[in-house]
């Protein structure tokens, strides 16, 4: 094989840029495939290049001019002094609380408030107190966790000895010793370890959720410092980037006194929050402490998301507030007119002696009508959402026993948003598939070699040692080709060597002699296992070499450099010195990356291999291309200097290193390709088919090849046989525009209407399609297609697609993924769902809801989403209805009280209406109501449409409920008024005052709104009965108790003996029975007639479900509802006590 010649040019001398490459040395970024860097990679692009690097002196006192933060951390939200101002600021950012505070203050003005001074203040204080207690309890937990962390101990080198020091007293520049299975107290640069050549193993589960071990390796210059004496003699400094939040990146340089400087990168940093594993001890230099550590820099809140129902509710509250002001203006004007008209005729009232002030009267009516806006609504919503989230967490139908993973609602603000999803954007690998990779085939030359299901290394050959050589009984074609000098023999050897050497896998030998491979990605593990099945077994790794067993012969490869894989490079290379002493570059990566770097000698196999790749992709297999290059010794040495300078640069190190890597990765020789199978998760095809029936659009955004993505589309029933495909695979902006506009004209009038068409877009075309001048046309084409699959897309492009569709369609979107590359799109969507999968917990930690399998999304949306949307809509509408029923009565009464602002009800009865007497029905409605069972919701996906289309809560529905409340308030006031108009309500001829009438009206209001709750409730379970009948009973208990307060307690004097006055009147009991029935009959009749004439799909399904079930079945179903929680047990999950999912929630 000819040596590769690398055009490097003269070695540049050191310059002030710390080895940074000049602009002419840096090739332009490769954007031909439409890929961009991931959010993790792109973070470096936003750093301030002018920011001063940090310099940490070793074994010296840090200069006083440089101030570093201490290592004490605080994650608590409040302190004793800051609690009151911070809490009040948080609470009064809500307009409702500001409004009620204003009312409470106005009530303190003498003779202004008709309802007393405390009827708004006391409920407001109660609500704020509940929120304060909740915040205090949560913050105490944070303080305790902080104290436990700050008081942990670690060994620090002080006065030539190891001394135990609390974490909070560790400072920048300290040399610390961390023992096995202990957390790192700060961000450290690794000096040395107990393992050979300064290797150590860490677990970063607290940082990124990944449980697989990662290697960290000290620099060769410090790896030998394994005792106190040489540590104390280490003189120099660490120059590194300023503190930042980038977990996977680090740029630094170690300057030792009178020695060469060495670059420091992510492989030398030990982050706070990570744990040392399988290593007795490590020594490290502290570079970042406390809140400057990367862990604490990443402790930021997720983007604030609000549900569509919340937004609509706030708008309606503003409109209702406007109506409230109009009512107050009307009453104030009427008061002026009435007072002027009656001042002379009704002299006994002495109206002339009362000063008339329009503003004064206006304030009076604002206070009187303020309760039209329910003061308890926000608290009720928070409680209901919190418990709904618990129901999601405890649903055993979404529990995955294989990994002991239940569903997890990480936020409760979006429960009802789950019922309105129109678009789902899904990752493929690990989300639709299992992310459990299995090596299936490899293509070399003109041949394809298949790995049989039962093949293992032991069955490959029988070795017989004769005269120090091997005789082999060969049954496998690849062995025959290798050992019989087939035309593919050299290529096969190179391919198997590459698969067993070009990786970062860590082998672990088990007691039985088997080897377990630990890898950062399932793909790498599958490739190494595949090579071992073909006879090339990866045996061991050290920082400087790896050993493989090639058909039983141990071969050692010296690892000189590892050019790591990134989402931008889409390839990985290692520079090795093989057992023969030859320098070689082994490279594997995406075909688009490899093919453009091939030499002319590879042309004979390029086209054949492309056909193999297309065949693999058609079968849904993941593919990689492999290539090698022979390196010249002198040219390599010159490149090594350039690479070292780039690696030591403090400014734009990543770009400089990537440019240096580009210099070597060229003139490659193509040797073959691999195919890995990633099977679909269980239930994915059925789940997608059901989601499509629910009129939910499912889009797949993947980085895989186009053919692979299309094949997966067929496999998961996203694309059905016979469905037309539109494939956008363009190389320029003009061709992309031409193709998109051509499809526009072909669709004609069907444009922007959903058609039974699948659109396939690659990343290159997507880059052009999302440009400003073409974006709208592209989005129109997308929403005209039933299925959209975007392949070869970067994490940034995933987020852009979600963002633009969300804005353009103005519908609720959901993004689901399992890896760090899915975090951006998860946070862009209205609802983010993370899969707790093989790629770690990054996506799950950044999501709003996490599940273990894609199929659980079906139950999350169609069951919990639809139920929660219906419940929240009814809760909000009912809360406004019940307040209108009571408080608008004051408007009707104002006509009889001369528009004076006189109240009809006792003031504390008014204040406790929302807090006690009508608080439970909306709670029961929000937690237990359901139109159909869970099974029926899944069997009939069309039942999702009412919630998806917002039919249960919109402007029209809201104001219908408002009008219904106004109608009921009129009936509930004027009927008792007409009955009591002669003011004689006892057989003895005695008359009652206005307060007797007020309590009669109040009683019928409480009974009516409770019965109304029962009418709109679909599912009556025991909490519903308790809430409805219990609320009515509470009013009767209250009136009995409150009537006996005076004179024992100095409140409620006007209510003394009231319960006797009411309960001894036949008029009261007549009103109690007849008036609520008369008010509710129109509602009941309308529901019956409308449900018969215009029966909805939900009502049909409900009737069908009831008819098809006998009482036994209904009884059984009631046990699986939220209303009757049975079999609930508690069990430990990962050492955390959590409710076991032994209860069904149907």
From TrEMBL:
<feature type="domain" description="P-type ATPase C-terminal">
    <location>
        <begin position="844"/>
        <end position="1092"/>
    </location>
</feature>
<keyword id="KW-0067">ATP-binding</keyword>
<dbReference type="InterPro" id="IPR044492">
    <property type="entry name" value="P_typ_ATPase_HD_dom"/>
</dbReference>
<dbReference type="InterPro" id="IPR023214">
    <property type="entry name" value="HAD_sf"/>
</dbReference>
<feature type="transmembrane region" description="Helical">
    <location>
        <begin position="358"/>
        <end position="377"/>
    </location>
</feature>
<keyword id="KW-1278">Translocase</keyword>
<dbReference type="InterPro" id="IPR032631">
    <property type="entry name" value="P-type_ATPase_N"/>
</dbReference>
<feature type="transmembrane region" description="Helical">
    <location>
        <begin position="875"/>
        <end position="896"/>
    </location>
</feature>
<dbReference type="InterPro" id="IPR023298">
    <property type="entry name" value="ATPase_P-typ_TM_dom_sf"/>
</dbReference>
<dbReference type="InterPro" id="IPR018303">
    <property type="entry name" value="ATPase_P-typ_P_site"/>
</dbReference>
<comment type="similarity">
    <text>Belongs to the cation transport ATPase (P-type) (TC 3.A.3) family. Type IV subfamily.</text>
</comment>
<dbReference type="InterPro" id="IPR032630">
    <property type="entry name" value="P_typ_ATPase_c"/>
</dbReference>
<feature type="transmembrane region" description="Helical">
    <location>
        <begin position="908"/>
        <end position="928"/>
    </location>
</feature>
<dbReference type="InterPro" id="IPR036412">
    <property type="entry name" value="HAD-like_sf"/>
</dbReference>
<feature type="transmembrane region" description="Helical">
    <location>
        <begin position="957"/>
        <end position="979"/>
    </location>
</feature>
<keyword id="KW-0472">Membrane</keyword>
<dbReference type="InterPro" id="IPR008250">
    <property type="entry name" value="ATPase_P-typ_transduc_dom_A_sf"/>
</dbReference>
<dbReference type="InterPro" id="IPR001757">
    <property type="entry name" value="P_typ_ATPase"/>
</dbReference>
<protein>
    <recommendedName>
        <fullName>Phospholipid-transporting ATPase</fullName>
        <ecNumber>7.6.2.1</ecNumber>
    </recommendedName>
</protein>
<dbReference type="InterPro" id="IPR023299">
    <property type="entry name" value="ATPase_P-typ_cyto_dom_N"/>
</dbReference>
<feature type="compositionally biased region" description="Basic and acidic residues">
    <location>
        <begin position="42"/>
        <end position="51"/>
    </location>
</feature>
<keyword id="KW-1133">Transmembrane helix</keyword>
<dbReference type="Pfam" id="PF16209">
    <property type="entry name" value="PhoLip_ATPase_N"/>
</dbReference>
<keyword id="KW-0812">Transmembrane</keyword>
<feature type="transmembrane region" description="Helical">
    <location>
        <begin position="991"/>
        <end position="1015"/>
    </location>
</feature>
<dbReference type="InterPro" id="IPR006539">
    <property type="entry name" value="P-type_ATPase_IV"/>
</dbReference>
<feature type="transmembrane region" description="Helical">
    <location>
        <begin position="315"/>
        <end position="338"/>
    </location>
</feature>
<keyword id="KW-0479">Metal-binding</keyword>
<feature type="region of interest" description="Disordered">
    <location>
        <begin position="1"/>
        <end position="53"/>
    </location>
</feature>
<feature type="transmembrane region" description="Helical">
    <location>
        <begin position="1027"/>
        <end position="1046"/>
    </location>
</feature>
<feature type="transmembrane region" description="Helical">
    <location>
        <begin position="1058"/>
        <end position="1081"/>
    </location>
</feature>
<feature type="domain" description="P-type ATPase N-terminal">
    <location>
        <begin position="66"/>
        <end position="121"/>
    </location>
</feature>
<keyword id="KW-0460">Magnesium</keyword>
<dbReference type="Pfam" id="PF16212">
    <property type="entry name" value="PhoLip_ATPase_C"/>
</dbReference>
<keyword id="KW-0547">Nucleotide-binding</keyword>
<dbReference type="Pfam" id="PF13246">
    <property type="entry name" value="Cation_ATPase"/>
</dbReference>
């Amino acid at each position: 094989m000819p040596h590769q010649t690398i055009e490097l040019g003269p070695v540049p001398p050191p310059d002030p840029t710390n080895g940074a490459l000049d602009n002419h040395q840096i090739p332009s970024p490769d954007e031909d495939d439409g890929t961009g860097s991931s959010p993790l990679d792109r973070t470096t692009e936003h750093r301030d290049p002018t920011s001063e690097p940090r310099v940490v002196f070793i074994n010296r006192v840090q200069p006083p001019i440089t101030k570093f933060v201490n290592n004490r951390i605080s994650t608590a939200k409040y302190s004793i002094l800051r609690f009151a101002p911070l809490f009040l600021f948080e609470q009064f950012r809500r307009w409702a609380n500001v409004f009620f505070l204003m009312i409470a203050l106005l009530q303190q003005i003498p003779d202004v408030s008709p309802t007393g001074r405390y009827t708004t203040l006391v409920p407001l204080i109660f609500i704020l107190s509940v929120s304060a207690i909740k915040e205090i309890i949560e913050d105490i937990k944070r303080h305790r966790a902080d104290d436990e962390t700050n008081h942990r101990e670690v060994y620090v080198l002080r006065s030539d000895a190891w001394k135990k020091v609390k974490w909070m007293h560790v400072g920048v520049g300290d040399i610390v010793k961390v023992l096995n299975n202990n957390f790192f107290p700060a961000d450290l640069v690794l000096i040395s370890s107990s393992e050979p050549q300064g290797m150590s193993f860490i677990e970063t589960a607290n940082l990124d959720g990944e449980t697989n071990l990662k290697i960290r390796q000290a620099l060769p210059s410090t790896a030998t410092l394994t005792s106190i004496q040489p540590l104390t003699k280490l003189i120099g400094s660490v120059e590194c980037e300023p503190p930042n939040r980038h977990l996977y990146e680090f740029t630094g340089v170690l300057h030792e006194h009178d020695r060469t400087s060495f670059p420091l990168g992510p492989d030398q940093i030990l982050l706070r929050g990570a744990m040392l594993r399988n290593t007795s001890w490590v020594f490290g230099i502290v570079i970042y402490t406390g809140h400057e550590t990367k862990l604490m820099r990443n402790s930021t809140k997720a983007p604030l998301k609000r549900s569509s129902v919340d937004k609509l509710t706030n708008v309606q509250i503003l409109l209702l507030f406007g109506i409230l002001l109009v009512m107050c203006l009307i009453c104030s004007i009427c008061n002026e007119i009435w007072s002027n008209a009656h001042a002379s005729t009704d002299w006994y009232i002495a109206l002339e002696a009362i000063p008339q002030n329009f503003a004064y009267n206006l304030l009076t009516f604002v206070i009187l009508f303020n309760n039209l806006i329910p003061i308890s609504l926000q608290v009720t919503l928070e409680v209901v959402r919190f418990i709904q989230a618990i129901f999601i967490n405890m649903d055993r139908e979404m529990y995955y026993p294989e990994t002991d993973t239940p569903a997890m609602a990480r936020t409760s603000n979006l429960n009802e948003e789950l019922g309105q999803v129109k678009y789902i954007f899904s990752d493929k690998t690990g989300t639709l598939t299992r992310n459990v990779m299995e090596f299936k085939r490899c293509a070399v030359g003109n041949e394809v070699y298949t790995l049989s299901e039962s093949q293992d290394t032991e069955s490959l050959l029988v070795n017989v040692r004769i005269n120090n050589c091997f005789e082999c009984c060969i049954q496998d074609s690849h062995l025959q080709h290798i050992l019989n000098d087939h035309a593919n023999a050299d290529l096969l050897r190179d391919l198997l060597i590459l698969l067993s050497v070009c990786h970062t896998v860590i082998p672990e030998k088990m007691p039985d002699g088997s080897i377990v491979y630990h890898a950062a990605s399932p793909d790498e593990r599958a490739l190494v296992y595949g090579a071992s099945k073909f006879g090339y077994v990866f045996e061991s790794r050290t920082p400087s070499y790896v050993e493989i067993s090639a058909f039983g012969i141990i071969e050692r490869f010296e690892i000189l450099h590892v050019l790591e894989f990134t989402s931008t490079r889409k390839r990985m290379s290692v520079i090795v010195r093989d057992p023969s002493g030859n320098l070689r570059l082994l490279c594997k990566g995406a075909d688009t990356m490899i093919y453009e770097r091939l030499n002319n000698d590879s042309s004979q196999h390029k086209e054949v291999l492309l056909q193999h790749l297309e065949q693999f992709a058609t079968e849904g297999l993941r593919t990689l291309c492999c290539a090698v290059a022979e390196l010249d010794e002198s040219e390599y040495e010159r490149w090594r200097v350039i690479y070292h300078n780039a690696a030591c640069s403090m400014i734009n190190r990543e770009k400089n290193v990537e440019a240096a890597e580009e210099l070597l990765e060229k003139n490659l020789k193509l040797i073959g390709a691999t195919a890995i199978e990633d099977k679909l998760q269980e239930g994915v095809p059925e789940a997608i088919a059901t989601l499509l029936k629910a009129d939910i659009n499912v889009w797949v955004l993947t980085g895989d090849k186009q053919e692979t993505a299309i094949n997966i589309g067929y496999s998961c029933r996203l694309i059905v046989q016979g469905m037309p495909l539109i494939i956008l695979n363009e190389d320029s902006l003009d061709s992309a525009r031409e193709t998109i506009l051509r499809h526009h004209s072909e669709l004609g009038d069907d444009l922007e209407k959903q058609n039974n068409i699948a659109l396939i877009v690659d990343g290159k075309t997507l880059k052009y399609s999302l440009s400003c001048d073409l974006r709208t046309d592209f989005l129109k084409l997308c929403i005209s297609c039933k299925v959209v699959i975007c392949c070869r897309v970067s994490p940034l492009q995933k987020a852009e697609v979600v963002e633009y569709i969300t804005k353009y369609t103005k519908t609720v979107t959901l993004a689901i993924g399992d890896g760090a590359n899915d975090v951006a799109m998860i946070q862009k969507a209205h609802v983010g769902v993370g899969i707790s999968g093989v790629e770690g917990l990054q996506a799950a930690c950044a999501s709003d809801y996490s599940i273990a399998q894609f199929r659980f999304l079906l139950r999350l949306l169609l069951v919990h989403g639809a139920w929660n949307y219906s419940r929240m809509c009814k809760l909000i509408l009912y809360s406004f209805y019940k307040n209108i029923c009571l408080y608008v009565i004051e408007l009707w009464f104002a006509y009889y009280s001369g528009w004076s602002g006189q109240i009809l009800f006792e003031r504390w009865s008014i204040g406790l209406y929302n807090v006690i007497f009508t608080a439970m029905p909306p709670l029961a409605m929000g937690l237990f109501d359901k139109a159909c069972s869970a099974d029926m919701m899944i069997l009939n996906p069309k039942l999702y449409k009412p919630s998806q289309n917002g039919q249960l809560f919109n402007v029209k529905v809201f104001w219908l409920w408002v009008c219904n409340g106004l109608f009921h308030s009129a009936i509930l006031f004027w009927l008792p008024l007409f009955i009591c108009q002669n003011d004689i309500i006892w057989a003895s001829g005695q008359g009652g005052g206005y307060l007797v009438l007020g309590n009669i009206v109040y009683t019928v209001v409480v009974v009516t709104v409770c019965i109304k709750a029962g009418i709109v409730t679909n599912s009556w379970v025991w909490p519903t009965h308790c809430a409805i009948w219990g609320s009515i009973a509470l009013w009767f208990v209250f009136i009995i108790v409150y009537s006996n307060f005076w004179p024992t307690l100095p409140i409620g004097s006007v209510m003394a003996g009231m319960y006797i006055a009411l309960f001894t009147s036949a008029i009261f009991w007549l009103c109690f029975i007849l008036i609520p029935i008369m008010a509710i009959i129109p509602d009941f009749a309308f529901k019956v007639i409308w449900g018969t004439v215009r029966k909805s799909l939900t009502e049909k399904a409900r009737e069908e479900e009831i008819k098809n079930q006998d009482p036994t079945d209904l009884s059984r179903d009631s046990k699986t509802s939220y209303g009757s929680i049975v079999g609930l047990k508690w069990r430990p999950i990962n050492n955390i006590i959590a409710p076991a999912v032994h209860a069904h929630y149907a």
